[in-house]
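Proteins fold reproducibly. Look at a concrete instance:
___
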Amino acid sequence: MNPLRPEVLPIVGTEWALPVRQRLYHSVPTWVDESAVYFVTVCCAQRGGNQLNQVETFAAMTAALEYYVISGRWWVEVFLAMPDHWHALISFPRDENMTDVLKDWKRYVAKRAGVKWQDGFFEHRLRTQESAEEKWHYIEQNPVRKDLCTRVEEWPWAWEAK
């Protein structure tokens, strides 16, 4: 085994064994400021379909999103749904666990709108204002990049904090 590439496992028979996927735990270190912003991506279980860009589904997602904002479980700056995943910039209060909040939200939306989610989510803590602006731009340009619309303003499946 190459110590510089620990993800490569030894040969099994005549084939390389696939790497074992490690579970990512999303615990926020205590030294991270409560106002830290995270770039979050959540995917549907089946990629390539269109579960999220439906009027009823988006309404359920944004109603739950706004309820969580009002109840103080998270603060969302921007939320954009693509057909099979969504991106958002989110902050979490110190007394809320990011994993629990997202799991609860996903469970609620699954029950209300029938969305089947992938297990877990992707998050990246943004460390600078420049990084936050880059991610905001990435989020809003995602449907344009995927040729789902020609201008950001045309995309109806976005929500921004007021």
